Structure formats: C-alpha cells, structure tokens
Amino acid sequence: MNVKDLKEITDLLLTLVTEAKFEFNKKGLSVKCVDPAHVAMIVLDLNKDAFLEYNLEEDTEVGVDLEKIKDFLKNTSSNDVIEIKKEDSKLLLTVGYLSRTMSTIDPSSITVPKVPSLGLPAKAVVPTDQFAGGIKVAENISDNITLHITPTEFRLYSTGDEDSTKLIIPKDLLKELKCDSEVRSLYPVDYLLRFIKAINSEYVTVNLGTDYPVKIEFTFSDGKGNGIFLLAPRIEE
C-alpha cells in the first residue's frame, strides 16, 4: 500500500490508543478502537481495492504497536510504497531497501468495541477546514465546546470565564443540512482537537442529537476508506 495511507491510518488511531487490532478479511482492512476512558471511538474501513496488492489466504487478526509503526514511517516518504507481511508472530514492514521486523501483539488482549446504533436526528456536512478552525480557536477558551445544528445553520461555540468564541455556517454554505428541530450537545475539546488534526477529508458529516454522542463521518486515504469518530457528550447541569 502507499506509505501515506498507512501514515494516515496510524495517526488517526494514535489519537485514542497506542495498540490496535488490524482485521484483514476478503473485503479489506477494518480497525475499531476505543480510548481507555471509553469516551471516544474510531472505526476505519479500507477496501481491498485501495491496496496496490492484497493477498490473503484466510481472515487474519494482527495486534500492532502503533508507535513502532509510526517510528518506522518517519524514515520514509509519503510517495513510497510499503509492503506489510505477517510471518508467524512477526510483522515485516518493507519500503525499498529498508525493512523492520516487529513482534505482533496477541489480538485477544486488545479490546474491539461494539459500534452503537445511534438514531441521531440532525446532520450537517461541514467543510473540514472551517470545522477545524472553530475547534482550534476554542482550545484556549474552555475545556468544552458545544455543537449545535438548527434548520438554518451549523454552529459551534465555547465559553470560558472571560472569553468566548463561536463559528456559524449558514445552510447555503454547507454541503448538506438535515434538521427538523434544533439540537445541541457539549463535548470535550481535547478529543475533537486531536481527531480533527489527524484527518485529511475535505468534508466531515456531523450527526447530532441533544445529549447524545456525536457521530462524525469522514473519508481517508484519498477517499478510498471510510471512517467514523464517536464522542460521548458532557451533560450540562
């Protein structure tokens, strides 16, 4: 596969965990992980057609140390191609003349979360750069940020002891907006900030309900993969 694709997958997962279970099957690669506090979850699916070559004798689960993969990728270029080969309990990574062998982690020791089914009533498809800008500004205002969808606009805002910030995007500047009645929920800024810094998708789809987890859908690997980020709300008194 392309190095840049593996870098993107690794960076996304490292926002929550340092170890992950890579599940390879006839459809491609699937990874699900939840942070130790069980506040956030990431689900990634990469179709086998996204790989330059994909040979699989049987469905395989591989426990990987993400920090080791990231460390190896520091010595590569985004234009490089990486070969990933599992040999018994070892993982062999090869880029050109450079290779690294690393021990795998027992897959049964890594928790794979069950993805909840959420019937969230509102949806906004927001330009990622604007969404990211609103979150980054809020970082120095408060530990929390409110996401708010109305029938006419998408909002996010944060209020501290003395300062406040807000982002308002009207419906005509959104790629899509579905909302019958306004909804809003409060979320921890730090989780959103780590996540938004790791994605390269042009748009994010924000699915929202009042006092429900937010479900953010996005693409990765130049649109060849689909991802979901779930974040639990902080209930306002």
How would you sum up this structure in a few lines?
The protein has 237 residues and is an alpha+beta fold. The chain is built from four helices and 16 strands. It has helices at residues 3-14, 66-73, 128-138, 189-198; strands spanning 19-25, 28-34, 40-47, 60-65, 83-87, 90-95, 98-103, 122-127, 144-149, 153-159, 164-170, 176-178, 183-188, 203-208, 214-220, 225-231.
What's the structural blueprint in terms of helices and strands?
Elements: H1 3-14, E1 19-25, E2 28-34, E3 40-47, E4 60-65, H2 66-73, E5 83-87, E6 90-95, E7 98-103, E8 122-127, H3 128-138, E9 144-149, E10 153-159, E11 164-170, E12 176-178, E13 183-188, H4 189-198, E14 203-208, E15 214-220, E16 225-231
Antiparallel strand pairs: 1-2, 1-4, 2-3, 3-16, 5-6, 6-7, 8-12, 8-14, 9-10, 9-13, 10-11, 14-15, 15-16
Percent of residues in beta strands = 35-45%
The tally of beta strands, per DSSP, is: 16
Low-confidence stretches: none
Mean pLDDT: 95
CATH fold field value of the largest domain: Proliferating Cell Nuclear Antigen
The second-level CATH architecture of the largest domain is Box
The count of domains is 2
Structural class: alpha+beta
Fraction of residues in helix: 10-25%
Radius of gyration: 19 Å
CATH class of the largest domain: Alpha Beta
The shape, in one word, is: elongated
Widest sheet, order of strands: 4-1-2-3-16-15-14-8-12
How is this structure best described in words?
- The protein has helices spanning 3-14, 66-73, 128-138, 189-198, and strands at 19-25, 28-34, 40-47, 60-65, 83-87, 90-95, 98-103, 122-127, 144-149, 153-159, 164-170, 176-178, 183-188, 203-208, 214-220, 225-231.
- With 237 residues, the protein is an alpha+beta fold.
- It has 2 domains: 3-107, Proliferating Cell Nuclear Antigen (Box); 122-231, Proliferating Cell Nuclear Antigen, CATH 3.70.10.10.
- It has a 9-stranded antiparallel β-sheet. The protein has a 4-stranded antiparallel β-sheet with strand order 11-10-9-13.
- β10 and β11 (164-170) form a beta hairpin.
- α1 crosses α2 and α3 runs antiparallel to α4 (189-198).
- The chain is elongated and about 55 Å long.
